[in-house]
Every structure is written in structure tokens, then in C-alpha cells.
Specification:
This protein is of the alpha+beta class and 156 residues long. The protein has one domain: Alpha-D-Glucose-1,6-Bisphosphate, Chain A, domain 4. Helix content is 24%, strand content 45%. The chain contains 3 helices and 7 strands, in the order E-H-H-E-E-E-E-E-E-H. Strands 1-7-6-5-4-3-2 form a 7-stranded antiparallel sheet, covered by helices on one side. The radius of gyration is 15 Å and the shape is globular. The N and C termini lie far apart (46 Å).
């Protein structure tokens, strides 16, 4: 069985700036890992049919990851790239644990609202091993990181 989780937040940047941060490996390296984790991309190809392999590590080595020891490894394909409105990613965790099996689809929708953007992340097919509560915390952290990144790193 799987479930759907949704996160949303206002970001202080225009949709084209937000979308650029979604498809830039250096930007994603800064804002994507939620608080309590660090991440690195083993490869990244931001075009339709491309994707990436991301290794996330928990800062606390005692936290058991989905893939190995304290890491989560995810392999992602870009299923839809519609700049600057929508990005759809199909993700599979590298794990031998059955509750993390299956393809999770992450849909990023960007809607201009005034001088900012409402970013909505909808995750469908979420494996039962990922709780909605923890997912909501991760979404909130990641979206806050994205807003902070765009406020700090974007061109004036």
C-alpha cells in the first residue's frame, strides 16, 4: 500500500527563478537536503528522460537510513519538464527493505503569486516506510531551504 503527501510554501522569487533552482545541480545541493541531512549527487542530468542519483546522509550516525547504515540513496528520472510551471520526478529508493519499494512520483507545481511563487510538492505512490508526518517535516524544511537559497544566491 502507498499514500500521497503534499507540501506547499510561498517562495520569495519568480517562477522562472524557482524552476532554475530545481534543475541546477549546484543549487539543489544547497537547498534540497532537509535539516539533519547532507547530500551529494553522483550524477545529474536535468532534461526530460534524464535524472539523478542522490545520496543523502543523516547528520546523526545513529539514524538508520533507507539504503545503508545512515544513508538514503534515491535514483530519479525526470518524467516531465515544463519550465517554469511544472517538474515531475519518478524516484526509487535503493533499498532491500520492502516498505521502501516502489516508485514515488514527486510533482513540483509553481504558481506565480504577486512577486513570489507558491510551490506545491505532491508525492504520490509514497512507500509505507515513509511516514506522512516525517515527509511533511522534510517538505517544510526543503521548501524553507529553497526560499533561503533564492533570497541569498539569486542574481539581483
Amino acid at each position: 500500500m502507498s499514500h500521497t503527501d503534499v507540501g506547499r510554501a510561498m517562495v520569495s522569487a519568480l517562477p522562472n527563478e524557482v524552476f532554475a533552482a530545481l534543475v541546477d545541480v549546484e543549487a539543489r545541493s544547497v537547498w534540497l537536503p532537509p535539516v539533519g541531512m547532507s547530500g551529494r549527487f553522483e550524477w545529474f542530468d536535468a532534461r526530460l528522460g534524464g535524472g539523478y542519483r542522490l545520496v543523502l546522509a543523516y547528520d546523526d550516525p545513529a539514524i538508520l537510513g533507507k539504503s545503508d547504515m545512515n544513508t538514503d540513496v534515491v535514483e530519479v528520472r525526470f518524467a516531465e519538464v515544463d519550465a517554469p510551471k511544472k517538474l515531475v520526478e519518478e524516484a526509487d529508493f535503493v533499498s532491500e527493505v520492502a516498505t521502501f519499494a516502489g516508485t514515488l512520483t514527486m510533482t513540483w507545481l509553481l504558481e506565480a503569486v504577486g512577486a513570489g511563487t507558491l510551490v506545491t510538492i505532491t508525492a504520490t505512490g509514497v512507500p509505507d516506510g515513509i511516514s506522512s508526518t516525517e515527509h511533511a517535516k522534510a517538505f517544510a524544511s526543503t521548501l524553507n531551504n529553497l526560499d533561503t537559497y533564492l533570497r541569498s544566491y539569486r542574481a539581483p
